[in-house]
Amino acid sequence: MDIQVLLSTAGILAVDPGLIGTATAVVGGTGLLIGLFLGFAAKKFEVEVDEKELKVRELLPGANCGGCGYAGCDACAKAIAEGNAKIDVCPVANQEAYNAIAEVMGTTGEVKDKEVAFVKCAGTCDKVKLNYIYYGIKDCKKASIVPGNADKKCNYGCMGFGSCVKVCLFDAMHIVDGIAVVDKDKCTACGMCRKECPNNLIDIIPYESGTQVSCNSRNKGKDVKEACSIGCIGCKLCEKQCEFDAIHVTDNLALIDYSKCTNCGKCAAACPVKVIRIK
Ligand code: SF4
Ligand code: SF4
Fold first, then answer.
1. Is the CB of 209 under 6 A from ligand 1?
2. pTM as predicted
3. Deepest in the core among 67, 100, 114, 274, taking most CB within 10 A?
């Protein structure tokens, strides 16, 4: 019979067994071809994964903060495994992780000293004067395009709108009394806050550094005094007191060379505005 499938108004009544066999063969053959093609494609386009890279990736904290300078922990692990980044490039990992990464890489630990973020401003609400009342968007980057960097009279200092706070993944940065303050115990020195600050107020410094200049103003002493009662006036008294050549005034601002500083405290004692702090 020509008609292999018998139909009635009620639906399929019967199917020719020959037709079932043919259909099965076609479907099976097609499946086999697809399987072969997929197998071939998988082999052809296979991306070889470096075992070392996988192991290093497991040892990284997974914060994906970018503090290492790479686009996340995967890229960082790749760079370490390929020998293009130091084993302690991740600022968030701890000593234990560095040692384990060193072991994977077959090297001895080459570990940097612990670091921490430091905000170079002490201009709290009671110390800095205002130019006007700012009602704009509470965002440091946006406020930085307003003439004078928003309302504070010092245009070098912390605006206090907390752009740094928003990017910190470790709850280590808070706005206290109008300025950003770092919680040293929580900070991993990832540097996200540093990238975010439009006034370049945040440095990553040695964790153990006990002497810090909490100002970033390059204004002349007279202008600094007019704006803030705790700004560096560039008088150089600190410089004259330092026996270790560790503090110098450049562009009206005292800067510490942490590699030379012994934390003797003489500069802080000499500073008339008390902007140098010993911690
Ligand atoms: S440190 Fe910089 S980013 Fe943070 S609140 Fe101050 S101005 Fe804004
Ligand atoms: S305070 Fe800054 S450097 Fe420290 S963890 Fe937060 S974003 Fe990173």
1. no
2. 0.70
3. 67
